[in-house]
Write a structure and sequence with these properties.
6-stranded mixed beta sheet, 2 domains, Transcription Regulator spoIIAA, 693 residues, transmembrane helix, mainly alpha
Length: 693
């Protein structure tokens, strides 16, 4: 068994000989106190040793072992997550709560679904279709017990923007493409869920999502203003054409739809605010959309104002089975499908995980994504356009104390009853009432509080927020997303390629070493530089790390120092405990750096590499190159040994200018060097033992 650091026995021998070498210097307890050095065992790199594992092999092995352990009940729970809550359902306790939550969300969803369908450029009935079958399917295959799925404003805007360039909203092709889009989104969600690829979306910063959502909410609100003004405006996802068309048609302004829409919008906002502020009145929040619809329909039915446009005839009955058509445009719709899938991961899965944590049950993100995918695939077979989790309806569902997926089934039943019995009444709904519901819903998506928070906390994240929101507003949704994601990835790459590196110093009275910039009281040792690398080391950042190490070597020491006075740096200690991975390119670069140091009589020492990093270094031959005695468990161990050599070099300076030729790993035995320590000098022992006092 070989060890990285010098054995305790050797160090004790060193101090004993140092203390007893002169009769005029009597031995003191401080001079003979043993120095504690923890030995580090090097990994076995022989051919008989187990080869390094391949990450994909490890993943496959874990999956295989997990599958072998799964019982029939586990398989049922995996394929049909609804059985998890069905087995533990408490009818007397849960049914009343689920019933009230399901009815509340259903009452909220009926008008919202029709409003979002209009936003997507579809007839209102398709919003109800998208709220019917997907809800029942998700209740079976979805993992969340509180997530309310269906049409949402952001996805509806994406659908409208993607299909607007292909077909006019009045054409049948527009509807067929929206249904096809639901199928494509469902397939992508299922693939990502099965392959467990949901982690890819983590590279998109939250500030990017917030900026994109805020800008999209403004665009959505402006696109609905036409129902308030009483005249048509340009269909666009950019703010400039929308504003220009609003100004250009100002001479066509009509007061009746503006007054009705404004009145309904004010009522919606007041009810939503009161419902949020007072828990006992939270039902007002859910009832607000229905109240707006009832009020608008009553006014339209009684007074028949000619300048207020109505929804018109809506087909009665449940959706029929039909397979999506128009696959000729599938390739064109793939980018939008990927974008909607990303929104599903970021919003739906994020909301579902938060609700699961709040209600104390486990939820697998990939299983949840698969459940959303199945809901969209089967929904597309019944004339639904893409559905995903709604933040507002999920919040209402949770606040109504929904306990299981039964609340979703009840919501679906309400949508079904609406399709069967209420569609004749829907034809009197004013368009401005539906627009008011959309504007009220998206007003909360303009996250200016987040922008203020980012400005105060992190200017870089605020820059991301500003760039994403600005490009989305002025250049469109697709450009905004691409630019935001691009800048987000650029920041990630920059942070990875330029990792944080700290010079460490010893905290007084301890053996703890910390960043000297964070702890100004920490002191360093003359001739020794201790550097901590706070990231994995790989081909993209090794050049930056080498440059920083060279800077530390020649930089003027501005910190409090201890130990013997020396003229230059003789040791560089790398603290590698934060380094989780090192690749072959980085190892080769470290070898080159070691050779550079060796040519200038500077010894490299490495402290506390983890198991994988240590194995990589050992297999590369770097342990033998640097010397096993220069690998340590603790920084303090490395400092003790380096101080020994610095002291010896200082004492023997006149006899041997290059002490590394005597004490390096390529020189003579280390034990022969210990006896050369001058006996009368206690500075080394004081430096070594100061941390023990």
């Amino acid at each position: 068994m070989s060890y990285a650091s010098l054995s305790v026995k050797d160090l004790n021998s060193l101090l004993s000989r140092s203390g007893s070498g002169s009769s005029s210097s009597p031995r003191t307890p401080g001079q003979t106190r043993p120095v504690k050095v923890i030995p580090l065992q090097h990994p076995d790199t022989s051919d008989d040793a187990r080869p390094p594992s391949i990450p994909f092999d490890d993943i496959f092995s874990r999956w295989t072992a997990k599958i072998k352990r799964m019982s029939l009940l586990d398989w049922v729970d995996t394929l049909f997550p609804c059985f998890r809550w069905i087995r533990t359902y408490r009818g007397n306790e849960y049914f009343k709560l689920d019933l009230m939550a399901g009815v509340t969300v259903g009452v909220m969803l009926v008008p919202q679904a029709m409003s979002y369908a209009k936003l997507a450029g579809l007839p209102p009935i398709y919003g109800l279709y998208s709220s019917f079958v997907p809800i029942f399917v998700y209740a079976i295959f979805g993992s969340s017990r509180q997530l309310a799925i269906g049409p949402v404003a952001l996805v509806s805007l994406l659908v409208s923007n993607a299909l607007g360039d292909i077909a006019d909203s009045s054409e049948e092709l527009h509807i067929e493409l929206a249904i096809l889009l639901a199928l494509l989104v469902g397939i992508l969600e299922c693939i990502m869920g099965l392959l467990r690829l949901g982690w890819l979306i983590r590279f998109i910063s939250h500030s990017v999502i917030s900026g994109f959502t805020s800008a999209s909410a403004i665009v959505i609100g402006l696109s609905q203003v036409k129902y308030f003004l009483g005249y048509s405006i340009a269909r666009s996802s950019k703010i400039v054409p929308l504003v220009e068309s609003i100004i250009a048609g100002a001479d066509k302004f009509q007061w009746p739809p503006f007054l009705m829409g404004s009145l309904i919008l004010v009522i919606l906002q007041v009810m939503k605010h009161v419902g949020k502020a007072k828990k006992e009145l939270q039902f007002l929040r859910a009832a607000a959309p229905l109240t707006g619809i009832v009020l608008g329909t009553t006014i339209a039915k009684v007074f028949h104002p000619p300048s207020i446009s109505l929804v018109g005839e809506i087909p009665q009955g449940l959706p029929t089975f039909s397979f999506p058509r128009s696959f000729d445009h599938a390739k064109t719709l793939l980018p939008t499908s990927a974008l909607i899938t990303g929104v599903a991961i970021l919003e739906s899965v994020g909301i579902a995980k938060a609700l699961a944590a709040k209600n104390r049950y486990e939820l697998d993100s990939n299983s949840e994504l698969f459940g959303l995918g199945v809901a969209n695939i089967l929904g597309s077979l019944f004339s639904a356009y893409p559905a995903t989790g709604s933040f507002s309806r999920s919040a209402v569902n949770n606040e109504s104390e929904a306990k299981t997926g039964l609340s979703g089934l009840i919501t679906g039943i309400i949508i079904g009853c609406s399709l069967l019995f209420l569609t004749p009444v829907f034809k009197y709904i004013p368009q401005c009432a539906l627009a008011a519901i959309v504007i009220s819903a998206v007003s909360g998506l303009v996250d200016y509080d987040e922008a203020i928070f980012l400005w105060r906390v992190d200017k870089r994240d605020f820059t991301l927020w500003a760039i994403t929101s600005t490009t989305t507003l002025f250049f469109g949704i697709e450009i905004g997303v691409l630019v935001g994601v691009g800048f987000s990835l650029a920041f990630v790459i920059h942070e990875s390629a330029n990792p944080h590196i700290a010079v460490l110093g010893r905290l007084p009275g301890t053996t703890v070493y910390r960043n000297v910039k964070q702890y100004p009281e920490a002191y360093t040792y003359n001739g020794i530089v201790i550097v901590r690398i706070d990231s994995p080391i790989y081909f993209a950042n090794i050049s930056y790390i080498k440059d920083r190490l060279r800077e530390y070597e020649v930089a003027v020491d501005k910190y409090t120092t201890r130990g013997p006075e020396v003229e230059r740096i003789s040791f560089v200690i790398l603290e590698m405990s934060p380094v989780t991975h090192i690749d072959s390119s980085a190892v080769e670069a470290l070898k080159e750096l070691y050779q550079e140091y060796k040519a200038r009589d500077i010894q490299l020492a490495i402290s506390n590499p983890n198991k994988d990093v240590h194995m990589t270094i050992a297999r590369s031959g770097m342990v033998e190159l640097v010397g096993k005695e220069w690998y340590f468990v603790r920084v303090h161990d490395a400092v003790q040994v380096c101080l020994t050599y610095v002291q010896s070099s200082n004492s023997e300076e006149q006899k041997e200018p290059s002490f590394l030729r005597r004490f390096g790993n390529n020189g003579s035995s280390n034990n022969s060097s210990y006896s050369d320590i001058q006996p009368g000098n206690t500075l080394l022992k004081e430096a070594l033992l100061s941390g023990e006092k």
